[in-house]
């Protein structure tokens, strides 16, 4: 089997039509998550979890075995979350043949996109996948990554570098020159000391010194 290569991407789900097939634990988790991020979600199943029944997600009571291309073609993203492995694969194959994005949680190899575990706040998004090998390990990797990202030093550095980017856009017109300055400032020991310790004004002053010295 040819090894798949996945391109990581963060996407605005607003107005995307998402079909979740299966109203159990996995289908519920996927449906609620996609709904939270702005997608227009519909779930087709004979049974629905209480969480789905309590939500404002569109629910269609129907046997998943009756779903065909005429239904799938109406959606942009399909998630096959039934407890029938063969049916999940069949429906995902139909979706892919229609050039739709499809995730089959019961068989990652059958999917053409992965739903990673992730962390999100106002400043950053972090996503991890082990490509179906182990969600437990993926969660541990994410936890350790978050602990680094949320350290005061890293948050201070992020804030300072954002201010540097704003400063460079005002002072340097050429994008290639800005790029060079951006790395030079980041690697400067004085700048990084000030930035990581939350001395943002001193960090920016040092950045201006580096720019003006050229």
TrEMBL record:
Pfam families membership: NAD_binding_7
GO biological process per UniProt: siroheme biosynthetic process
InterPro entries associated with the record: Met8-like, NAD(P)-bd_dom_sf, Sirohaem_synthase_N
Keyword NAD found: yes
Protein keywords: NAD, Oxidoreductase, Porphyrin biosynthesis
Pathway as given in its UniProt record: Porphyrin-containing compound metabolism; siroheme biosynthesis; sirohydrochlorin from precorrin-2: step 1/1
GO molecular function: ferrochelatase activity; precorrin-2 dehydrogenase activity
This enzyme's EC code(s): 1.3.1.76
The reaction(s) this protein catalyses: precorrin-2 + NAD(+) = sirohydrochlorin + NADH + 2 H(+)
Enzyme class per UniProt: oxidoreductase
Name of protein: precorrin-2 dehydrogenase
Taxonomic placement: Archaea, Thermoproteota, Thermoprotei, Sulfolobales, Sulfolobaceae
